[in-house]
């Protein structure tokens, strides 16, 4: 009976339109699995929640959902001790920021006299993890690269690598300038190929 009713009401088309307005993968996943409730109290609460969300949009135009992504699988892997990539850690930090920002947004509206009891209850469950968020963003750049300042040991290793690379390049450049080497080279330049320094040798 329910399936027939949903088909007559073109419920899937309604969900497709709603999907176009979602701001995160979490929201899209929730819409895809959304089914009408038959519980009266739940229906009333959902309608009240919708009224509050509509009030936010009417007063503010939108809600700040930027940065929030689906990190559930990353968190599960971290719980069992799996290693996360820099980009995965960055997604977690960005979601921490987005959640913290959303909580502050709703609380500021409430402080200014806007009644949002249901949304306030939801954001009250958000725990600020600012210290962890900053630790991640201080160690990983926007492009997902681990920065030198992530640890003293990493900074030291990368300094050694850069010093070694500089010495290798300097020696190769000296070689290309020597009269004996120039006889065997097609050009007096040092290039990088497959992450290695190379000099162009003449073909016999």
TrEMBL record:
Q: Which UniProt keywords apply?
A: Coiled coil, Endonuclease, Hydrolase, Nuclease
User: Which Gene Ontology BP terms does the record give?
Assistant: mismatch repair
The chain's coiled-coil residues are 147-174
Instruction: Specify the superkingdom.
Output: Bacteria
* Family matches, as SUPFAM superfamilies: DNA repair protein MutS, domain III
Q: Name one GO molecular function term.
A: endonuclease activity
InterPro entries for the chain: DNA_mismatch_repair_MutS_sf, MutS
Residue stretches spanning the membrane = none
Its name, as the record gives it, is Endonuclease MutS2
Q: Which organism is it from?
A: Bacillus cereus
């Amino acid at each position: 009976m329910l399936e027939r009713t949903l088909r007559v009401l073109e419920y899937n088309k309604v969900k497709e339109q709603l999907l176009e307005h979602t701001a995160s993968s979490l929201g899209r996943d929730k819409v895809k699995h959304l089914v009408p409730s038959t519980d009266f109290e739940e229906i009333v609460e959902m309608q009240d929640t919708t009224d509050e969300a509509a009030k936010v949009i009417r007063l503010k135009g939108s809600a700040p959902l930027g940065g929030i992504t689906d990190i559930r699988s990353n968190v599960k892997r971290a719980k069992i001790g799996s290693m996360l990539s820099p980009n995965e850690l960055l997604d977690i930090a960005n979601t921490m920021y987005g959640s913290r920002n959303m909580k502050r947004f709703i609380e500021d509206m409430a402080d200014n006299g806007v009644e949002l009891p249901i949304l306030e209850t939801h954001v009250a469950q958000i725990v600020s993890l600012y210290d962890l968020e900053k630790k991640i963003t201080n160690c990983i750049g926007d492009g997902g690269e681990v920065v030198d300042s992530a640890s003293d040991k990493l900074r030291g290793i990368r300094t050694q690598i850069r010093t070694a690379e500089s010495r290798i390049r300097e020696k190769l450049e000296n070689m290309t300038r020597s009269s004996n080497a120039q006889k065997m080279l097609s050009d007096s330049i040092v290039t990088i190929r497959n992450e290695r320094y190379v000099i162009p040798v003449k073909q016999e």
